[in-house]
Structures are given as structure tokens and as C-alpha cells.
Design a protein that fits this description.
Blueprint: E1 3-6, E2 9-12, E3 18-20, E4 27-31, E5 39-42, H1 57-63, E6 71-76, E7 83-89, E8 95-99, H2 105-115, E9 118-123, H3 131-141, E10 143-146, E11 151-155, H4 160-164, E12 172-180, E13 184-190, E14 198-205, H5 206-213, H6 220-229, H7 234-244
Helix pairs in contact: 6-7
Bound molecules: zinc ion (ZN).
The site of zinc ion (ZN) has 6 residues, from loops.
Length: about 240
């Protein structure tokens, strides 16, 4: 993890430090080597948060786009006491999970159900070498249905990475490490619907959506509508997207 409690303060790892886990309260030791990302690890093996994924530079780059107070936030289910650490949780309740490795569909749905209001950001370059190329070809084969924001309707079958996330009932942003010098990071939003053949994907820039992420929206459908289609006509336009499908 990036943080542990040192004298009660949420702190980043530095060499030879000890702290307490923000989730389970057990002792943590800092891991600070030349070839690793500095982090905290439990001193003795424990099943603190089985959903926690070891962080990469990609995770840290993404987290650094948000103020520190929103990083690594503990979520507790009031009924069961189940606890998990969200990568990012904003004041409006939106959880943002950064996913670099393969994850089973069932686990995605478990997390969606646990966090309720969640946005996934998926590293599009980490699984298969062909994912990005295949995604671009899928867009080419699909129909462009809008120019601003650039929106396509495409066949799920044409893109394995889109298929991987087809059953996710929360919005997914694919990050293929595309960068626009003026507009910032380029992302592709896969809009969740029940349709198993066709999907709408929308090209977004992080700089365009970052303010929307902090808006107080009721649930992730409002969020994706707002992100994808602009806050002004959000529901109207989202319904149009549904109709296109
Ligand atoms: Zn722990």
C-alpha cells in the first residue's frame, strides 16, 4: 500500500519506517528499494484486503492526479463488517478503482456491488499486446455516431478487452496510454448496457472529466451520462445512446 499510519498520520513509506495498516491495524514495514515502488507491507502475512493489487507506476501515476485525502479510503459494510480499501474515494462517494492485472468477472461484480458507485480505470496495455490495435480496428469497423465527444457504436466481439468488461455494470475507462498534448490523457469510456453484441464507446480526455468526477451525482449512470455526453443534456443524450443500441 502507499500509506500506513505513522503516529496516527497517514504517511507514505520511507526507508526503515514502521507503521500500522490503515485497514486492519496490524504492523506495517516500509519497503523502499531502488528497483521497487516504495510501499508498505504487512510485517506478518495476513488476509487484510484480498482485493488489494500490488501497485505499479501506472497506479501511482493515476492516484497522483487526485488529492492525497482521497487515496486509499477504507470502506466498511455496516451489516457484515467486510472491509476494503478503495484506490480513490471522492467526497461524493464515487470510488475509482485502477485495474492493471486480469480480474475475474465475478470479482468485478462483487466489487461493483460492494462499492455501489464505482468507476473502473483499466490499463489497456497490460494484458495482451494486441488489445490496443484490436480496439482501434474495432472502432474502424464500427459506426461513428457522434463527433464531439467522439462516439462509436461497435461490436463487442471485435475487441477482447471490451469483451473482458462486457458484463461490468459500471462504467469502464480504458487507458491505452494515448496522450493529447493539449487535452491531456485520452481515455475510452465503455458504457455499460445489457446488450451483448454492440456497445457505445466514447473518447474522453482526463482534463475534460476531472471536474465531473467531483460533482455530486446520484449514481454511476448519472456519472457516465455526464462524463460521456456533457452535463447539460445528460439524460436526454444518454437515452439517445440507449436508442442507438
Ligand atoms: Zn492490513
Amino acid at each position: 500500500m502507499q500509506y500506513a499510519l505513522v503516529n496516527g498520520i497517514k504517511s507514505e513509506a520511507s526507508p526503515n519506517f514502521k507503521g500500522l495498516c490503515i485497514c486492519c491495524g496490524n504492523e506495517m514495514i516500509s519497503k523502499c528499494g531502488k528497483k521497487i515502488i516504495w510501499h508498505w507491507a504487512h510485517k506478518t502475512k495476513c488476509e487484510c484486503d484480498l482485493w488489494w493489487e500490488n501497485e505499479t507506476i501506472w497506479h501511482r501515476d493515476w492516484k497522483s492526479k487526485f488529492p492525497k485525502e482521497f487515496h486509499e479510503i477504507i470502506n466498511i459494510d455496516d451489516l457484515t463488517g467486510e472491509k476494503h480499501i478503495a484506490d480513490i474515494k471522492l467526497n461524493n462517494g464515487l470510488v475509482i478503482e485502477f485495474q492493471n492485472s486480469r480480474i475475474k468477472e465475478e470479482e468485478v461484480l462483487l466489487r461493483n456491488n460492494f462499492y455501489k458507485n464505482i468507476l473502473w480505470v483499466v490499463n489497456g496495455l497490460s494484458l495482451r499486446e494486441s488489445d490496443y490495435r484490436e480496439f482501434c480496428i474495432a472502432l474502424d469497423k464500427g459506426n461513428k455516431v457522434n463527433n464531439i465527444p467522439l462516439t462509436y457504436l461497435f461490436n463487442l466481439n471485435d475487441s477482447k478487452i471490451a469483451m473482458d468488461w462486457a458484463d461490468c455494470n459500471a462504467p469502464v475507462l480504458f487507458d491505452f496510454s494515448e496522450e493529447d498534448l493539449e487535452l491531456g490523457k485520452v481515455l475510452w469510456l465503455l458504457i455499460p448496457t445489457a446488450n451483448q453484441d454492440k456497445r457505445v464507446v466514447v473518447q474522453l480526455h482526463f482534463d475534460d472529466i476531472k471536474n465531473l468526477l467531483f460533482m455530486d451525482l446520484d449514481n454511476n449512470y448519472m456519472l457516465i451520462s455526464a462524463i460521456a455526453l456533457g452535463a447539460k443534456k445528460l439524460l436526454n443524450r444518454f437515452m439517445t445512446c440507449e436508442k442507438i443500441i
